[in-house]
Amino acid sequence: MKGLIKRGITGFATEQNGVDPQDVKSFLSFIHAIVKGQVEWKDVDIVGKNYYWILVSTDQQQISFFLNAYFPLVAIRIESPKSEFGYLTAVELEELFPKLSQYNYQVLGKEDLEEEILRDEIEQLDEMEIKQAEYWKPRTIEEIVFNNWD
Q1: 3-class DSSP state for residue 15?
Q2: Residues 94-112, buried b or exposed e (16+ Cβ, 10 A)?
Q3: Measured torsion, CA atoms of residues 91, 32, 144, 110, in degrees rounded to the nearest 10
Q4: Three-state secondary structure along 80-134?
Q5: How many CA atoms, within 13 angstroms, populate the side-chain half-sphere of residue 76?
Q6: How sure is the predictor about 82, in pLDDT bands with cuts at 50, 70 and 90?
Q7: Dist. CA 87–CA 83, nearest whole Å
Q8: How large is the average pLDDT for residues 50-77?
Q9: Which among 37, 34, 36 has a CA at the least distance from the CA of 99?
Q10: Pairing relation of β-strands 73-79 and 106-108?
Q11: How far apart are CA 147 and CA 150, in angstroms?
Q12: Whole-angstrom Cα distance, residue 25 to residue 18?
């Protein structure tokens, strides 16, 4: 997905290229607006990772919401007791959450997240981010947008 990878997205940018973190309260408001359920768990500590993770339980399922800590990029995943989970595809997102486009978040489908990261996209990153990418060797958009690089 062209144009998605920007300086600061990994959380490792130099100070002059750093980006302010996304607002967690706004993210929670977004979640409550699109799904009726109970927040079961929040992981909003960005030490060792570059995303927030909110788990919501509804009457029928558990849904994980991920937000890149520095850009308004979201992924949604259905959890299963059998540990068979998966990010939702663009079609599934549209069917389950038809009002997503009304909000200031870009929700990435499974297809976007699994897209191979290209060298020229890595080269758009900040010099510190490039060093981290050379070490961690991300292969997909997901591995840049939602990383656990420490």
Answers
A1: helix
A2: eeebeebeebebebbbbeb
A3: -10
A4: CCCCCCEECCHHHHHHHCCCHHHCCCEEECHHHHCCECCHHHHCCCCHHHHHHHH
A5: 24
A6: low
A7: 13
A8: 96
A9: 34
A10: parallel
A11: 9
A12: 21
| Token pair belonging to 53 | 């993770």
Kindly compute the dihedral angle of the four CA atoms of residues 39, 43, 49, 51, in this order, to the nearest 10 degrees: 30
Q: For residue 131, what are its two tokens?
A: 């060093």
Please name the residue that has the structure tokens 């939602």. 146
- The per-residue pLDDT for 14 is 77
With beta carbons less than 8 A apart as the criterion, state whether 37 and 56 touch.
yes
Spell out the residues 6+ positions from residue 120 whose beta carbon is closer than 8 angstroms to its own.
none
Residue that has been written with the tokens 């997205």 in this structure: 9
Q: What is the amino acid identity at position 53?
A: W
Q: Is residue 84 within 8 Å of residue 66, measured between CB atoms?
A: no
